[in-house]
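USER: For my understanding, would you kindly supply a protein sequence with its structure tokens?

ASSISTANT:
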Amino acid sequence: MIYIKSFVFNPFMENTYVLYDDTKECVVIDPGCYEEYEKKELKAFIVENDLKVVKLLNTHCHIDHVLGNEYVKKEFNVELYVHQLDEQTLRSVKVYAPSYGFTNYEEATVDQHLDEGDIVEFGESKLDVIFVPGHAPGHIAFISKADKICIGGDVLFQSSIGRTDLPGGDFDTLINSIHSKIFPLGEDFTVYCGHGPATNVGTEKKSNPFCAVA
């Protein structure tokens, strides 16, 4: 069984996730921690629960989801995994980070690429990788069929969807990703979003004002 701990970090109110199982191995997904107290909060949970971080994953590489990448890489000596098409998105962060007030942003280098069909393993758990572009060109999501969960980043939100007006975004592509990749998972799948509360596929399929289907 996969256990999920979420944190809300940085002014964008981004959700950072730690996924772990009974082996105590864990992965960190989209670390948005920037301030020292945020980094300490993340580390404290990992240390207090005797967890071992084995991988660092990004659903996509917009600034709010990667502010803590370098911290996690250094602190826990792990590699960073992203989709190849979002590596340029990550590289661009250092250019515009100061304009958002993140003058101490530390850039992290990518170690491994992930694509649809890949499987991320930790402990006794497995996460399937699916490709869900539209919000970002190399956006991916992480699926546990056994636990019926989706770590979805900024694709689908409770009663909303990810914005598509940023570089590499496209509304039609995003809607297609939701309809062809997220909704078919099953109505009882829980979607852990990049911002805001978790939701489930069934609710969004029926009532989301942007992407519900009849």
